[in-house]
Design goal:
The complex is a heterodimer of chains A (194) and B (332). With 194 residues, chain A is of the alpha/beta class. Chain A is built from five helices and twelve strands. Chain B is α/β, with parallel strands linked by helices. Classes of the chains: A alpha/beta (194), B alpha/beta (332).
Chain lengths: 194, 332
Amino acid sequence: MRVAIVGVQGDVEEHVFAAKAAIKKMKIDGEVQIARRKGIVSKSDAVVIPGGESTTISRLIFKSGIAQEIIEAAEQGKPVMGTCAGMIVLAKSGDEQTEKVKLLNLMDISVKRNAFGRQKESFQVKLNIKYIGEFEAVFIRAPAITKVEKDVEILATFDDKIVAAKQKNILALSFHPELTNDTRVHEFFFKMIN
Amino acid sequence: MKIKLEELRFGTELVKRGFAKMQKGGVIMDVTNAEQAMIAEDAGAVAVMALHKVPADIRASGGVARMADPKIIEEIMDAVTIPVMAKCRIGHIAEAKALEALGVDMIDESEVLTPADTFFHVDKRKFTVPFVCGARNLGEAVRRIWEGAAMIRTKGEAGTGNVVEAVKHMRIINRSIAELKNLNEEQTYNVARKFVERYIELAKLVKEDLGIGFVSDGDVVYEEYTLGEIIDGIFEILLEIKKIGRLPVVNFAAGGIATPADAALMMILGADGVFVGSGIFKSSNPEAYARAIVEAVQNYDDHSVVAEVSKGIGDAMKGLDVFKERLQERGV
């Protein structure tokens, strides 16, 4: 199994670390690579888009050609996970704050940026996630899903906002599973590989 | 799902350090108004630093440099969707609290402004909002981390457009971490004892004044912390640095970065990202410089990209080779 962590900007190393820890725990053969340029995502079995600034990440993946590779991987049925900024980039549409963010349109969701407010309103909380259970979730200037279409499965809500969802091979999270030592979200994601 | 309010935790170390981690691989740009902030955002900045004047102008105009006008900061916050940071004077608890109340996303307790306290920095653990602080060496970095800084940046020499000091500070910190790895526990503890000397200065001065002996480990020397507690805290951070081989928080480069190649250089030296102060809006073409520096940071190891983005972008800020006042010596 080869996992690509999109590495143009954001908490890339944290995802690498979490992915490696999950692979070790699952006792499977896996390789984790950082995709800072095109050519890596296309050779991978799963793709992670980390947290960071969605304006920056979006700009850089489209400019580098990584965006097209992510779209192709998703169309081939390979699992793609986006956390925080990564979730925004996966969406079909967004609020006025996403006007400057070019979206990948891989998931039938509408997102709201900074849905919980600015940094001082950022928080961590024990969240109940479908298929995973109680999970310490870290929300940092986090987005939320405001609308889902019929093929989207809601995995977690918080404060009446959707914060985790899955549509076939695409997984989107408002929070950062890579910031804690709990690897269950990454394990769940890797199990999505056919 | 209904969540009990007491289970919601704001401003934890994870949330504060996590915010800084989201900035990695990015460029944070100094801006002085909403228009500049929008240029920075469009160019791909991960955050902006809201200022009254860029460091080059602070240096040129002299006088006391203070927190920016909250009205300017608010206008910038309203203009962009990316995080907005602002600077407070070193040790100026009230400026820091005011910035937190305004809702800025990160506070830079910065030597670029005139220090308000010659003894102490702000106790940053008492804030919900995360802080970034400058450092020239490992001691300064570790003290700021112990005080609760979620991010460190090199001090460099702000407003000069001269990268030499930022390089020096990055090299010193890297070398210190390498040296630390070779030390045993006892030697590391001695480093911790050396690093805490800054916290004793006030108590020592007063005790000498009054002729009442020496500072002991049980004395409260900074906020509510005894010297012994500070030594233990610093020692623990040093052990963590030894173990992970880097600072436990994000470490950015700042102070004198003026060109795409300067930014790439700092990334090659191990910076997690870059602050560009005067370098953008003191150049002849801010938009071109902003875009080029963002791309140079992302592609710092692809030298052809750095060469390409550096083509025909106009003149970099003029820069200073010699400077009479060294801002970096503030707040050690």
